[in-house]
Amino acid sequence: MSQQLGGQQIIILRQGTTRNRGQDAQNSNIAAAKAVANAVRSTLGPKGMDKMLIDGMGDITITNDGATILQQMDIEHAAAKMMVEIAKTQDKEVGDGTTSAVVIAGELLKNAEHLLDQRIHPTVIAEGYQQAATKSLEILSGIAVTVKPGDNAMLKNIAETAISGKGAEAYKDLLCDIVVRAVTRVADPDGTVDISHVNVQKKVGGAIEDTSLVEGMILDKERAHPGMPKEVKNAKILLLNAAIEYKKTEVSAKINITRPDQVQAFLDEDEQMIHAMADKVIRTGATVVFCQKGIDDVAQSYLAKAGILAARRLKKSDMDNLARATGATIANSLDAITPADLGFAGLVEEKKLSGQEMISVSKCKNPKAVSLIIRGASEHVIEELERAIHDALMVVSVVVKDKKIVAGGGAPEIELSLQLHRYAATVGGRIQIAIEAFAKSLEVIPRSLAENAGLDPIDMIVAIRAAHESGKKTFGLDVFEGKPVDMLKAGVIEPLRVKTQALSSATEAAVMILRIDDVIASAHASAPRGGMPPGMG
Ligand code: ADP
Ligand code: MG
Questions:
Q1: Close Cβ partners of 400 (under 8 Å, ≥ 6 residues apart)
Q2: Is residue 528 predicted with pLDDT exceeding 60?
Q3: What are 120-141's pLDDT values in tens digits?
Q4: What is the pLDDT of residue 386?
């Protein structure tokens, strides 16, 4: 690129750099973002379709999950990548609403394009969109419903809505029940939930119906020694973050041995040290030992003789969850262990699961960590199941924490649209037009729900809008009957935070893309050259 200065050309960018500016840059970015939104729109809602994705290695993923689809698509265009980011953020923050967020962002940009054509400046559109988003959050908290503590039926509905339309839906009763039990179990008293305390294990084999919740931990481990008991009832559990090993050679680097009996003495001393360590373990009164480090062979048989079940080299995360499940405190040395450090489980046993030995720690008293074992006939089934369970765990956690929900099925989007139109009128000027475009964009949700269910989108939107105008704020689209119904009564509900997060990040992405009027790509960048990513359009 170059500039003319008094007839002389000044080159400021390296050769090969491409530059795309003004309306051109905007058009290209908007087209790419819309293409991404279109790619996932057909999966929205309980009647949405699945996508089959095949990666470079030929591995197949079949999914209905927006974030997963976008992650697996090989997207190159820079603006399109920003759309993928929305899905990722949404997935990380709330676990659900990924498709909605991307679809809304796409629609915001599509409607912005019309405004750009009418020569409304991008900054005006951006400002209007931001005002509308702020107002939307206010309106949403106004129509949100508070969940009463202990209302597990409501939590179950939240989980069911999150997995509707996914492959797992046929088993929603069982799965959502498990999810609600798991989350309420591991929740802290203030409602904070860290779902890493739900230890999810996938085991190919058996049927989906065999998916179950263990009120304790399932460990991918065997006992350290065959002489150890396979089963311990009313187990007193020691969690040890120290090795039961003694390596003299690590302590003193040089040993002088001149007579054969010295070798024996040396070995005897080694063994004695290990016995001493094992004795310390035995004296704690523990009947089960989980060790994060190694356990020496000699110590293993010594512990086995004492009737202790031990396992070694456990993962840090498993140790943490064991502590939460059994009430034990992890000991960092063998010297300062008190009986109060020991945890309890009604039953610890080694058993076979899908042909593999596992240690199950169950019948814990008040476990703050649980294990969820996913079963299914194949990898594909289990993986889609895991994604559905993950979403359900996330949304239930969000509601246990926030205690706020809204109706689903397009109800909040229609209500927002109506209220925003009224609000726009009070604002006036050019910004009003942008707020109205925002309001109209939200209707893409009920419209897509209707389209994906093979219903007439215009008829459906008119009908839901009429319901809302007569004060029925929780009416949304019953995709099975093809008419508006009260979504709260139908149990189609979602966390408030799924909606607020989706709106915020969709607006943010749309505004960011709109504000770009110059795309400068260096020669080696894979950034846009005005075109669309391959396979899209
Ligand atoms: P997302 O990735 O955005 O969560 P989904 O495919 O899960 O996409 O679809 C979510 C949309 O489907 C939400 O608007 C939700 O309210 C709606 N929805 C879910 N279940 C139902 C149902 N049974 N009836 C009508 N709408 C539903
Ligand atoms: Mg969803």
A1: 155, 183, 184, 187, 191, 193
A2: no
A3: 999 999 999 999 999 999 999 9
A4: 92
How far does residue 136's CA lie from ligand 2's centre (Å)?
A: 20
CA distance 224 to 227: 9
Ligand 1 pocket: which of 492, 498, 503 to mutate (most atoms within 8 A of CB): 492
| Phi (first) and psi of residue 460, to 5 degrees | -65, -45
CA distance 104 to 431: 19
What is the percent of the chain with per-residue pLDDT over 90, rounded to a whole number? 64
- Alpha-carbon distance of 341 to 334, in angstroms, equals 12
396 within 8 A of 94, measured Cβ to Cβ: no
Q: Is any ligand 1 atom within 6 A of the Cβ of residue 449?
A: yes
DSSP sequence for 227-288: TS-SEEEEEEEEEE-S-B---HHHH-S-----SHHHHHHHHHHHHHHHHHHHHHHHHTT-SE
The angle that helices 444-452 and 98-117 make with each other, rounded to 10 degrees, is: 120
Ligand 1 center to 499 CA (angstroms) = 11
Dist. CA 131–CA 145, nearest whole Å: 24
Average pLDDT over the chain, rounded to an integer: 89
Cβ of residue 448 lying under 6 Å from some atom of ligand 1 = no
Give the pair of three-digit tokens for residue 175.
Answer: 């799965």
Confidence of residue 344 (pLDDT cuts 50, 70, 90): very high
Contact, 85 vs 99, CB < 8 A?
A: no
For the stretch 352-367, pLDDT in tens is: 887 889 999 999 988 8
Q: With CA atoms as reference, report the closest residue to 474 among 108, 39, 142.
A: 142
Which phi and psi (to 5°) does residue 381 adopt?
Answer: -60, -50
pTM of the model: 0.84
Confidence grade of residue 251 (pLDDT, cut at 50, 70, 90)? low
Angstrom distance (rounded) from CA 370 to CA 485: 37
Residue 333 near residue 312 (C-beta atoms within 8 A) = no
State how beta strands 212-214 and 370-376 pair: antiparallel
Statement: residue 535 has pLDDT above 50? no
Asked if 249 is an active-site residue, the reply is no
Catalytic, out of 61, 98, 161, 500: 98
User: Does ligand 1 lie within 6 Å of residue 45's CB atom?
Assistant: yes
Please state which of the ranges 71-85, 334-348, 409-423, 499-513 shows the lowest mean pLDDT. 71-85
Furthest CA-CA distance within the chain: 101
Bridge partners (DSSP) listed for residue 61:
53
List pLDDT tens digits, range 178-207: 999 999 999 998 999 999 999 999 988 888
From 296, 318, 391, 478, active-site residue: 391
User: Does the C-beta of 66 come closer than 6 Å to ligand 1?
Assistant: yes
Tell me the CA–centroid distance for residue 128 and ligand 2, in Å: 28
Can you read off the two tokens belonging to residue 47? 């009647």
